[in-house]
Amino acid sequence: MAHSGVVSETTSQPARGRLTQRLQQWLPKLALAPTAAMALVGIYGFMFWTGVLSFTGSTFLPSYEFVGFDQYVRLFGNARWLTACTNLAIFGFLFIFCCLAIGCFLAILLDQRIRNEGVIRTIYLYPLALSMIVTGTVWQWILNPSLGLEKLMHDWGWTSFQFDWLTNPNMVIYTIVIAAVWQASGFVMALFLAGLRGIDPAIINAARVDGASLPRIYLRIVLPSMRPVFFSSVMVLAHIAIKSFDLVMAMTSGGPGYASDLPAMFMYSFTFTRGQMGLGAASSIMMLAMLLAILVPYLYSELRGQRNG
Amino acid sequence: MKPIRHLLAAIGLSFVLSPAHAGQVEVLHWWTSGGEAKAMGVLKEMMEEQGHTWKDFAVAGGGGEAAMTVLKTRAVSGNPPAAAQIKGHDIQEWAKLGFLTNLDDVAKEEKWDQVLPPIVSDIMKYEGHYVAVPVNVHRVNWLWVNPDVFKKVGVEVPHTWDEFFEVADKIKAAGIIPLAHGGQAWQDATVFEAVALAELGPKDYTAAFVNHDMDVLSGPKMVEALTKFHKIRDYIDPNAVGRDWNVATKMVINGDAAMQIMGDWAKGEFTAADKVAGKDYECVPAPGTEGSFTFNIDSLAMFKLNNEANEKAQMDLARTILRPKFQTIFNKAKGSIPVRTDVDMASFDDCAKASMKAFKATAENGGLVPSMAHGMATTSAVQGQIFDVITNFFNTKDADPEATAKQLASAVQSAL
Amino acid sequence: MASHAEKKLTPSRILIYATLLLACVAYLIPVFIMIITSFKTTGDIRSGNLMSFPEVWSVDAWIKAWSSACTGVQCNGVSGFFWNSIKMAVPAVLISTALGAINGYVLAKWRFRGSDIFFSLLLFGCFLPFQVILLPMAATLGKMGLANTTTGLVIVHVVYGVAFTTLFFRNFYVGVPDALIKAARLDGAGFVTIFVRILLPMSVPIIMVCIIWQFTQIWNDFLFGVVFASGDSQPITVGLNNLVNTSTGVKEYNVDMAAAMIAALPTLVVYVLAGKYFIRGLTSGAVKG
């Protein structure tokens, strides 16, 4: 190692050495301090503040007149909130599932010594570079019956073709899934590809010698060993799913009616445009609670599993 | 490095600029579509003529939703713009929280009390003091008509809803979209409001949307209004979802659609396309609302500032807005009518003249009602609840009007 | 890691290639539409359809979007917004990456009691819906005198970006053998020395991952940009939104699409140029537990 000079300097002075040693002990914690401070204020402080607000009758701007659980009662009596929650469940599940399935599938195909792999990889990955505002605008255009796909098919002579999901209150949420999957599945592919590259080829060769078929090897040996990749992917995808606010905003603004509303949009509109800040705060606390219920057990089991394994 | 530069800039601003008269006005608005942006450009020019700097703070989209979020965060951070596009009940809310500045001096100097109709000035005042400046008066209950389409199909412009449906059937049969519409909550509400006004009449309309009378909200007339409103679904095209109002207006201009129910800001789009009122397009009151006037008043609320030069600029802005010269130029571009009733209307088009006449007449006979869809009638909380019920009803194929009326009442109740 | 022998074109390999190509087409179609539309004239858009090539390739829409399209009252295109975004994104990316590296180093190699809990709490922070923090953040920035400054916006991005950069670095450093660190400590190297001399030089791949990820997130952010920036420091996403919504009845799809392409260009360039580092960086540790 090239830093032996530093070593001899510090060890030659015992008194200063002890001080340095103590400093060394504190340094790691000191290094975390800025982030800890930011997280304490910026995440947990603000979260707590939102929690407080959800028990107040805040309307236009924050006020501190407490009303107990009124806002929560109101929240669950609100038809739009229930639609938003159902949508999040559908969207979140389909989005994460499809991204994992497509990403994993493409990664496995791409791992078969493909020519021009670099180019193909970049093509799969690039949608993530676009902002959801841009993605939303483009997909809105493509799915719009009078401008996009439907018109194209009619122009090409397939006049009975009909694709009106964007304007159909029962189907609109699936159009958002399509756009979101298009954007994020390439990234999942990259994560899986990276995971596949980390697997020892000897294991697979051994299995092949034993006469196992390729799909079987992947299903039985490769995929189970990629648990950490699944973990990272789910974390990133869940993160994107919650942030899909921009995408919905650009694609449908929550319409038709409020058929494609999501909790984040509900919270945003009640807090900022409707002047029902207390209700908005209650909805964001409920969002956090839902997240906690799903994420914490998962986080716990995964982090624990890592330490043991 | 950065904080120092900011500090220097701040010191520079307060010491170098304050003795001069030139200040800066930052105006937050969402007037970004063609006619609106042009109208706002007029104000910018007039302020620059007076030596002030105009700092444009446009936040487009969503009928001002994004702009309101920005304004709230700006105010909370202690750094509000000089003026912001706030209207109706929200003015009272902002004033109650102590954010707005007192404009009484300018008002006295310029005799606002004498030139503004009381119904307008009441909205601009908080506890008797002016805190906002009205910019214009819009009439919302207009029906915009492409006469060529009507000629081609051979039908007359409808004056009642029954006539409307009759005519619309024929237009539809001729392969033209009867009603241009954009499927956004506020546009749904704008159409609903027109139907409701026709069915309920001004008195019950006020009872329902201003005083929130539960019996009227869930009553038989409301059920009838909802039924008719739902029937309109058959006369709009399936692609209306999410369409902006000005794109819908363009459909009428091009003859792709026959009519549109929209406030008179739509006229700005006709004007921008070089169309002449009474010749290329016609404006008639929305079916069944001939004797009424649904008003929507745009205004700029003035925030408390802590820089003298900027305050001066702010007062000049307030003064300029109500001067007849600006009122005339601005309102011609925006499609609305001046808030001052003493402005010479000779240079305005037929629609504006008709609007001014109706404004004055309905102010006398009680037909003047605030627009629910545009935040004039009630708080944003109640308005939001009504929007949710209405837009969901309109977008559901086989919705039940009777149940919806009850739902409407309970939704309003929950936000009171 | 599949077999070495399968280099010949067997039917199953043809199938693989076909599937991959089909996926390529699916991924490319939206951007293909954007590009051809941005080179069309207004008349072309009306007469043609989504997939038809422009009759005349015209760069007018690009020029208009860059320098003369209206974004509200002003009509200067998106060029000013573009530079604002750069001024904001560069410091924010660098600071959050640096902080993430230090945090990741501590959390992976200098564990102490509670460091895992700290990490979990930080991770949970990633999932905070950002709409929640708008008002309290605005009040905090106001008190610090940073409301509506680029500095304030940079701070916001750092605060909410650092969780992810920490995650990346921690997972990368966990993969570095502990023996290496132990040996260095025996040699007397301290906290800083080990980081600077040993870990940092080997961190290039993960630094690339972080920079790419953070740059994409920050460049594409709309919510913070619209709320925490004032009129003359608004980033490109806000400019794009204003441009798309500033219309005179006819939607100029070509200008909209050109502006969207301009907004997306920097991140696209970063992905194309640095994409291979991205995969390499991910392979070298970001996805390991």
UniProtKB/TrEMBL annotation, chain A:
<feature type="domain" description="ABC transmembrane type-1">
    <location>
        <begin position="85"/>
        <end position="300"/>
    </location>
</feature>
<comment type="similarity">
    <text>Belongs to the binding-protein-dependent transport system permease family.</text>
</comment>
<keyword id="KW-0812">Transmembrane</keyword>
<dbReference type="InterPro" id="IPR051393">
    <property type="entry name" value="ABC_transporter_permease"/>
</dbReference>
<feature type="transmembrane region" description="Helical">
    <location>
        <begin position="122"/>
        <end position="142"/>
    </location>
</feature>
<protein>
    <submittedName>
        <fullName>Sugar ABC transporter permease</fullName>
    </submittedName>
</protein>
<feature type="transmembrane region" description="Helical">
    <location>
        <begin position="277"/>
        <end position="300"/>
    </location>
</feature>
<keyword id="KW-1133">Transmembrane helix</keyword>
<dbReference type="InterPro" id="IPR035906">
    <property type="entry name" value="MetI-like_sf"/>
</dbReference>
<dbReference type="InterPro" id="IPR000515">
    <property type="entry name" value="MetI-like"/>
</dbReference>
<feature type="transmembrane region" description="Helical">
    <location>
        <begin position="26"/>
        <end position="49"/>
    </location>
</feature>
<keyword id="KW-1003">Cell membrane</keyword>
<feature type="transmembrane region" description="Helical">
    <location>
        <begin position="171"/>
        <end position="196"/>
    </location>
</feature>
<feature type="transmembrane region" description="Helical">
    <location>
        <begin position="217"/>
        <end position="242"/>
    </location>
</feature>
<keyword id="KW-0813">Transport</keyword>
Automatic annotation (TrEMBL), chain B:
<dbReference type="InterPro" id="IPR006059">
    <property type="entry name" value="SBP"/>
</dbReference>
<comment type="similarity">
    <text>Belongs to the bacterial solute-binding protein 1 family.</text>
</comment>
<keyword id="KW-0732">Signal</keyword>
<dbReference type="InterPro" id="IPR050490">
    <property type="entry name" value="Bact_solute-bd_prot1"/>
</dbReference>
<feature type="signal peptide">
    <location>
        <begin position="1"/>
        <end position="22"/>
    </location>
</feature>
<dbReference type="Pfam" id="PF01547">
    <property type="entry name" value="SBP_bac_1"/>
</dbReference>
<protein>
    <recommendedName>
        <fullName>Probable sugar-binding periplasmic protein</fullName>
    </recommendedName>
</protein>
<keyword id="KW-0813">Transport</keyword>
<comment type="function">
    <text>Part of a binding-protein-dependent transport system for a sugar.</text>
</comment>
UniProtKB/TrEMBL annotation, chain C:
<dbReference type="InterPro" id="IPR000515">
    <property type="entry name" value="MetI-like"/>
</dbReference>
<keyword id="KW-0812">Transmembrane</keyword>
<dbReference type="Pfam" id="PF00528">
    <property type="entry name" value="BPD_transp_1"/>
</dbReference>
<keyword id="KW-0472">Membrane</keyword>
<protein>
    <submittedName>
        <fullName>Carbohydrate ABC transporter permease</fullName>
    </submittedName>
</protein>
<keyword id="KW-0813">Transport</keyword>
<dbReference type="InterPro" id="IPR035906">
    <property type="entry name" value="MetI-like_sf"/>
</dbReference>
<feature type="transmembrane region" description="Helical">
    <location>
        <begin position="257"/>
        <end position="279"/>
    </location>
</feature>
<feature type="transmembrane region" description="Helical">
    <location>
        <begin position="117"/>
        <end position="139"/>
    </location>
</feature>
<feature type="transmembrane region" description="Helical">
    <location>
        <begin position="88"/>
        <end position="108"/>
    </location>
</feature>
<feature type="transmembrane region" description="Helical">
    <location>
        <begin position="151"/>
        <end position="173"/>
    </location>
</feature>
<comment type="similarity">
    <text>Belongs to the binding-protein-dependent transport system permease family.</text>
</comment>
<keyword id="KW-1133">Transmembrane helix</keyword>
<feature type="transmembrane region" description="Helical">
    <location>
        <begin position="194"/>
        <end position="215"/>
    </location>
</feature>
<feature type="transmembrane region" description="Helical">
    <location>
        <begin position="14"/>
        <end position="36"/>
    </location>
</feature>
